[in-house]
């Protein structure tokens, strides 16, 4: 496998989301990746206590913004060779996929809070 270089198009996993981006810099064990599209919207809630609502701070987790740069461990970055979708369209698709996943889960306090966050995020993202 060819090593990734500055300017390479990549798929990058960041926390619970996944993105398409371009490597801007190499920083030791990390790449600085510029976000160009969203593949998977981050899960809602507390990363350390997934799907819990009691006794935790339930975070609203936003997707990384278009052209936002993030330090991502090299182990979470791989080459991307497909077409890069438009950022707003990819964000809308990722948000809809997460909503469908949540709606497919049994009713729970987590699901209700996460769907409420999704409604708020959708209004914020798209007006």
TrEMBL record:
Keyword match DNA damage: no
Gene3D superfamilies (UniProt xref): Kinase associated protein B domain (2.30.30.430)
Annotated protein name in UniProt: Kinase-associated protein B
UniProt key word Kinase: yes
Species in which this protein is naturally found: Terribacillus halophilus
Keywords, alphabetical: Kinase, Transferase
InterPro entries: KapB, KapB_sf
MF terms (GO), sorted A to Z: kinase activity
SMART domains: KapB
